[in-house]
Amino acid sequence: MTPHNHAKPGDYAEAVLLPGDPLRAKWIAENFFEDARLVNSVRNCLGYTGSWKGKPVSVQATGMGQASLSIYVHELINVYGLQKLIRVGTCGGLNAKVKVRDLIIAQGATTDSAIVRDAFTPFNFAPIADFGLLRDSVERAEKAGMRYHVGNMLSSDIFYHIEPGLTGYGRLPAHGILGVEMEAAALYTLAARFDRKALAICTMTDCLITHAELSAEDRQSSLREMITLALDTAIGA
């Protein structure tokens, strides 16, 4: 147990999905898991364990942003021994080729966060996904006929920029960044640090270039595709 998690040893499966929103964690457990049980509710950051296609799997909300995710992921790895961590979330689009409802499977994650900086050297770490999980998820998405893109995601600590429109993102769109969210780079950095496997899969729900956005109904159906893909990847089914 930790100040942020009252789960007992063994309460989590080795593979976990990581939405930011606690209510999305609850929705995943109630709509996808068999025999779901609540294992953590500290600060209402909900965690559940159940099974998917007969194999154990967990879901744990991480809260919003890299600082919050880092707390939960650090503890899931170092206290509870989790091995595979897959972020499932939504993102804004920074590339016109990515349409609403499309999945972005983050091969890498650029960030403005200090988490990638080494205070004692001139180096910044380049956070990337686990190749095995990345390849598996792409093959599954291809086989299922999902619309997906593989590439670089931006994990930003800033949601509301002072600069209007895309100005706050500088040259990143010109360098092929596909979308912007707030957690993947921290997940990839911690997974690398502690020799774990991590992947981020996001649904693009609102495009910052075209201003297209999903309706509530389309958002829900597109999330089902993403969660199914993530669960199959997590358990290797």
TrEMBL record:
The record marks 219 as: Important for catalytic activity. It is an enzyme of class 2 (transferase). InterPro entries: DeoD-type (IPR004402), Nucleoside_phosphorylase_d (IPR000845), Nucleoside_phosphorylase_sf (IPR035994). Its EC number is 2.4.2.1. Catalyzes the reversible phosphorolytic breakdown of the N-glycosidic bond in the beta-(deoxy)ribonucleoside molecules, with the formation of the corresponding free purine bases and pentose-1-phosphate. GO terms for molecular function: purine-nucleoside phosphorylase activity; uridine phosphorylase activity. This is Purine nucleoside phosphorylase DeoD-type. Keywords: Glycosyltransferase, Transferase. GO terms for biological process: purine nucleoside catabolic process. It comes from Devosia insulae DS-56. The active site is at residue 206. Residues 16-225 form the Nucleoside phosphorylase domain. It catalyses: a purine D-ribonucleoside + phosphate = a purine nucleobase + alpha-D-ribose 1-phosphate; uridine + phosphate = alpha-D-ribose 1-phosphate + uracil; a purine 2'-deoxy-D-ribonucleoside + phosphate = a purine nucleobase + 2-deoxy-alpha-D-ribose 1-phosphate. One of its GO terms (cellular component) is cytosol. A purine D-ribonucleoside binds at residues 4, 181-183, 205-206. It holds the Pfam family PNP_UDP_1. Phosphate binds at residues 20, 24, 43, 87-90. Belongs to the PNP/UDP phosphorylase family. Homohexamer; trimer of homodimers. SUPFAM superfamilies: Purine and uridine phosphorylases.
